[in-house]
Amino acid sequence: MTRTVGYARELFSAEVAEEDAAALRRAGATRVYIDRRGAAAGPRYELERCVNSLTKGDTLLIANAVSLSPSVEHFVTTLTQLRTRGIEVRSLAEPALSTALGSNATPGEVMDALDGMRRRLIGLRTRQGLDAAIAAGRMPGRPRVMTDERIEIARELRTQKRSFAQIGRALGVSESAVRRALKPAPGAPTAQAKIE
After folding, report:
1. Could you state, in order of their start, the residue ranges of all structural domains in the chain?
2. Helical segments of 72-163, H only
3. d(Cα 71, Cα 194) in Å, to the nearest integer?
4. For residues 30 and 39, is the Cβ–Cβ distance under 8 A?
5. Chunked mean pLDDT (size 10), the chain, 196 residues
6. 33 in helix, strand or coil?
7. What share of the chain is helix, strand, coil (3-state, %, to 5)?
8. Concatenated DSSP letters for 56-91?
9. Please, what is the angle between helix 107-135 and helix 72-84, to 10°?
């Protein structure tokens, strides 16, 4: 008797993992294994239990490829091992991925499918990095070049009728950085409005 077994991994929150599990059940999974968030860095015991429970003719149903694998290489290896055992893999989010990696796929279809997965993994890692930075109390992103001190100097130089380019050279920043820093806040009266 063939079965459809689901696997989900908590990538961001328990709620999203539960939503994935519910979607897998609606799609026909009779049992769903879920690895919780802490498993991202260490062994994923639920994935191991899930894979070990599968037999020839079964289908492994996943919400998306990145929930199954932390890398393209891991995904391809896992898919190959499962297909060797006679187990099919289906993804709810990427139905073409399993098909593209099948034996009848052209090299272009395989490369497109893997490239799409690689982009999703980069997005996932970026989001996890931003979340970690925020949790550690750091402001993610590029640091500001126009510090409060530089803004005050720029304002003073503007009152002396210096150009944005001259101010930028004096402060060692770009002209556009100076323009952005000295741009009036939305709704604030402009210098022209004050003169009138």
Report:
1. 4-135, 148-186
2. 72-84, 95-100, 107-135, 148-159
3. 58
4. no
5. 87 82 92 75 82 92 85 85 89 72 66 79 80 80 83 92 92 91 72 42
6. strand
7. 55, 10, 35
8. TT-EEEES-HHHH-SSHHHHHHHHHHHHHTT-EEEE
9. 130
Amino acid at 95: P
Alpha-carbon separation of residue 49 from 29, 38, 42, 136 (angstroms): 15, 17, 15, 33
Burial string for 139-161 (b: 16+ CB within 10 Å, else e) reads: eeeeeeebeeebeeebeebbeee
Q: What is the DSSP letter of 31?
A: E
- Distance between CA atoms of residues 163 and 159, nearest Å: 10
- What CA–CA distance (Å, rounded) separates 117 from 79? 14
The CATH architecture assigned to 4-135 reads 3-Layer(aba) Sandwich (3.40)
Its pTM stands at 0.62
Cβ distance 60 to 54 under 8 Å? yes
Can you give the pLDDT at residue 194?
41
